[in-house]
DNA sequence: CTACATCTTCAAGTCGACTTTAGGTCAAGC
DNA sequence: GCTTGACCTAAAGTCGACTTGAAGATGTAG
């Protein structure tokens, strides 16, 4: 299938798909003339990449996670990434609860509300989901 | 307090603090000579900003959420952002479960595992936490 | 009073993740 | 056989979030 078909099915711009190809995140099955050809599986792979980046993984990280033929190291990596996500989820929940509270709180400024301030104590310093080896 | 003191207390680089000041995310209480002076409250504000960006909010979004003197519109905004986080949390949980499963799954490639593929169906198209008005 | 550590500004540089642009290729339909 | 539309590459541009660098000002210790 042609790249525009992939674009339609995945909802991603053609330019992005080409970019992911260049970066080695996806592979075409070959060329027809100079046109890249893809099979259906690339659509799932793209969905996975989109999900990954939506939760804060870099393209490089996604590349490592999506290597073909599950190697040992890969499974460990996946577990490690899952743990990172657990951490991240805690932060999100903290922030969400904080926001909901702030929205109904009577304190003049959110930063003057003790309940709101308490949530800040939970925060660690990491800015993104993953900074580990991969 | 001097900027380097703020840096020490917040764990952020001086350059970042100056940058946030330029961007209007924080305010100094004034200058002593040409040196910015800050009071303790800026440390909580910085913690809040860090938390926000760690969960995917842009600096501009954080700026809107942290305006002083809770205006009506602000509380609505906070609720809206909390809802966005709820969405985001669902995605994180989905991804985490998917990763954990993939790590123990027997399928040769994760993308061949039906359970793993199922999680992809949950995915929406949003890449970041917020693309709303603010 | 002078040295110097610490601040200042402003401009330019970096990085990831793309997008845009310019110029070129090719299969298909008229 | 020529036009057209979908594709191609390579290079440059963009955007957010900072960092770095150069050159200058200032508070404080000796």
Strand order, sheet with most strands of chain A: 1-2
CATH-defined fold name of the largest domain in chain A: Multidrug-efflux Transporter Regulator, Chain: A, Domain 2
End-to-end Cα distance of chain A: 32 Å
Uncertain spans of chain A: none
| Oligomeric assembly | homodimer
Helix percentage range of chain A: 55-70%
CATH class of the largest domain in chain A: Mainly Alpha
Largest interface: A-B, 52 and 52 residues
Indicate the structural class of chain A. Answer: mainly alpha
The number of distinct β-strands of chain A equals 2
Proper CATH architecture of the largest domain in chain A: Orthogonal Bundle
Number of domains of chain A: 2
Task: Describe what this molecule looks like in 3D.
The structure is a homodimer of 134-residue chains. Chain A has a two-stranded antiparallel ribbon. The first copy, chain A, has helices spanning 3-10, 14-22, 41-54, 59-65, 72-104, 114-120, and strands at residues 30-32, 35-37. Chain A has 134 residues and is mostly helical. Chain A folds into 2 domains: 3-71, Multidrug-efflux Transporter Regulator, Chain: A, Domain 2 (Orthogonal Bundle); 75-128. The radius of gyration of chain A is 20 Å and the shape is elongated. Chain B binds a DNA duplex (30 and 30 nucleotides) through residues 2-4, 13-16, 18-19, 23, 32-36, 53, 58-60.
């Amino acid at each position: 299938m042609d790249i525009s078909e992939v674009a339609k099915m995945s909802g991603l711009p053609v330019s992005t798909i080409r970019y992911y190809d260049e970066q080695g995140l996806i592979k075409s099955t070959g060329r027809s003339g100079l046109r890249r050809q893809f099979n259906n599986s690339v659509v799932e792979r793209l969905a996975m990449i989109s999900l990954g980046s939506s939760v804060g993984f870099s393209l490089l990280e996604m590349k490592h996670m999506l290597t073909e033929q599950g190697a040992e190291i890969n499974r460990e990596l996946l577990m490690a990434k899952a743990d990172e996500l657990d951490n991240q989820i805690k932060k999100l929940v903290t922030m969400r609860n904080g926001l909901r509270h702030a929205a109904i709180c009577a304190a003049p400024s959110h930063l003057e509300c003790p309940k709101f301030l308490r949530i800040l104590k939970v925060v660690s310093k990491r800015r993104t989901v993953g900074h580990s080896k991969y």
